[in-house]
User: Fold Carboxynorspermidine decarboxylase from Evansella vedderi.
Amino acid sequence: MRFEELPTPCYVVDEALVEKNLKILNGVMERTGCKIVLAQKAFSMSSLYPLIGEYLSGTTASGLFEARLGYEEMGKENHVFAPAYRDDEIDEIISICDHIIFNSFSQLEKFKDKALTAGKKVGLRINPECSTQVGHEIYDPCSPGSRFGVTKEHFRGDLLDGVSGLHFHTLCQQNSDDLETTLNAVEEKFGEWLPQMEWINFGGGHHITRTDYDIPLLEACIKRMQEKYGLEVYLEPGEAVALNAGYLITTVLDTLQNSMDIAILDTSASCHMPDVLEMPYRPPLFGSGESGEKPFTYRLGGQTCLAGDVIGDYSFDEPLKSGDRLVFGDMAIYSMVKNTTFNGMALPAIAVKDKDGDCRVVQKFGYEDFKIRLA
Assistant:
């Protein structure tokens, strides 16, 4: 199947572009000896796990279901962190994960012995209280009142018996200068306990495969922890694995006018690209320009009843008409894992574009997928 023959709406993941990202990440691993694992919360397309597993060390999960997916579909190192674990899930989590990271000393004391008895590595998430994000407070784990990680004030060095590593995650789509700033805060507040650890996890949010990312500085940060404290270093990026490697194809259903030209698409910001509203951000659209840049500007919106189900304002060389196909870029990460069936919207099909340019649909969704979620 060719790209232009795919049904809409449809997510398309470009295998060659994913592999390009993986090679960049693998290069960091080879030059530094660090380990990089896939953060499944950003990208959990298991049909590509065999490819990802060729380049990365494994997966990391935010709970039982992601942990099972990484264990069953990639079968390499399997890490997990959650703000709190359920009593009825912890035994299975321990059985399939290698690194169990706890969010508090109370969780550590409750479940540590089980994990250690099973021969698993136990970690503790710390909060360096070092905010480096601007404009994305919803994604800032270091904001006041954050529920993530133990702060210096509440840290208990006397309870570290059996803990072999520390974990922090403070970044979101950021460069390595912010990692360096964070590492300074980690050393300042928790440095006295680093020599007794075996490993440290830098968390995610590292946009390593972005064109302007400072990889040499990242590698310097990694080597700093290795050489100064003898630590094994882990990173768990999600977005970097499939950054700019996916598309969302959609069709124009109708156009109308209300103080400006509007186009209704068969996709939805609310349902199929929720970060457009939550982040918020304006997704790239091939062949378009900024509002007013090209002769014909349209506000693009979805079919749902939400008045704010608007993707953004884009301009075009020609007027849009019913049946036109539009292609949004950078749609592999988060969009696919966070989509919903609000208003009974059908979920987009999922396709893979292979290295030869051929496309294959790997998943379709219909009425039963909507019905079963609410039955």
User: Anything to note?
Assistant: The longest strand covers residues 246-257.
